[in-house]
Amino acid sequence: MLSVLTFLPLLVCVLLLALPGSLPARWCTWTWVATAAVDLALVAVLWAGFEPGGGMQAEQRMRWIPGAGVGYHVGVDGLSLPLLALTCLLFLAAAGYSLRGTRATRAYVCLFLFLQTVCLGVFVALDLILFFVFFDLSIVGMYFVIAGWGHGERARAAALKFFLYTFTGSLALLLGFIGLYLAAEPHTFDLVDLARARPLAGRGGYAAPVLLALGVGLAVKTPTVPFHTWLPPAHTEAPAAGSAVLAGVLLKMGTYGFLRIAMPLLPGSWRRYALAIAVVGAVSVVYGALVALAQTDFKRMIAYTSVNHMGYIVLAVGAAGTLAGTDVQARSLAVTGAVVQMVSHGLITGALFLLTGVLYRRGRTYAMDAWSGLAAHTPRFAAVTAVAAFAAVGIPGFSGFVAEFQILTGSLASQAVATAVALLGLLLTAALFLRALRTMFLGTPRLPGSVPVGGPGDLDAREAVPTVTLLAVALVIGVAPRFLLDVVEPAGRTVAELVAR
After folding, report:
1. Closest listed residue to residue 251, CA positions, set 241, 263, 243
2. Do 354 and 241 touch, CB atoms closer than 8 A?
3. With pLDDT > 70 as the criterion, what percentage of the chain qualifies?
4. Which residues partner with 127 through β-bridges?
5. What is the C-alpha end-to-end distance of the chain, expressed in Å?
6. What pTM does this model have?
7. pLDDT (tens digit, 9 = 90+) per residue, 356-408?
8. What is the mean pLDDT of residues 445-460?
9. Dist. CA 221–CA 206, nearest whole Å
10. Which of 95, 100, 247, 429 is the most buried (most CB within 10 A)?
11. Which residues contact 64 (CB under 8 A, 6 or more apart)?
12. Using N-to-C axis directions, what is the helix angle for 399-412 and 328-363, rounded to 10°?
């Protein structure tokens, strides 16, 4: 089932490209919606049959390049299953949002179908080279989305910067994979075999540069300070659906790599440098919020909040590697919070980026000071944006509160100072969203000159359904998180125990 789920979008992409002649735009987009819906249904079936605490499940192994120790090995556990569900839901939301129409629709839809396959592939891959192939292809797909459907000439520059940064990071990641391969006896790229063999245990002088290569490659993708500078222009210039997928799914490949690869394969080195990792996370939290607070561009502001929110995940995985003054339960809580934060950020920030597309469609600008009193013209848009903003702040009742509470509680035992610094990020995030809401939606009505004479239209069904659905799932997780925690907690405990060895 995993292979069907992963490659179904790619198969549909190939079929769309193979059909001769021009195809109706709506036909292409509805095909994407149907494909994404089928994939989400397959994930639901997988979730229903999943046994929490049962380890890796739905595994499939095939020989691929046996002479180099490379195989087609896929599987799913409590770390990857929630991210599979998030990926399918976000792509379905992006497909529904795209029913509003875009230029070169067949190519646009095919790129997103290709992206869906490679994103799912990253989260099911249990071979390092297979992981790397999917990881790299996601960069290619998103480059063309930004360059081809972004906003004007600046989109090409933003796409090039995104590609160069993240491709350089992937090369560093490949060096780390080769280091693990060479240390293993027999040589292999299989993640399960490497975790069992622990080839770099007790080899600190060799393990440190391998961890550095892995850390840099994954930090660029996350991104953390100081590897974040590609993110704001990529988000600002990308189409709304592209930004939602970039923030909601592609950024998670970095943090997922920390949990799946760096921590279990290099536990000794991870413990040794855990303090530095936690500090980077705390700095990213505060820096991202401070820079977001200074923005006057709504979409760019949300882009910087991604640096802030992903910083909490880095803080958590750093704290999980610190042994002094903590126990397995605290480390497990931090890891579980990190996974829940990945899901929460994908849902809420994905919805926010779709809403920025609504704003741009109405006035061709993201500048917050170009709008005032917008709530009087678009009450539905104002209400949904306000809900998304408060969800991003982490108020109780939404998934962000569950995630951040677990992260801060699990991190406090071993990283009290870094956790206290990260708490400042919560206040700054609240301030920047309240300022944005006040500027755009309250006060005397003022609209950009590009708005039609009849005024900006309110949210329509094709815009409201995807965004409200994402926020509704965040609400369900915030109110009744047990269905998610039952899946994540056993896997989080396993990672915490591996790091402690």
Report:
1. 243
2. yes
3. 98
4. 190
5. 34
6. 0.95
7. 999 998 888 899 988 888 898 899 999 999 999 999 999 999 999 999 999 99
8. 73
9. 24
10. 247
11. 70, 71, 72, 127, 130
12. 140
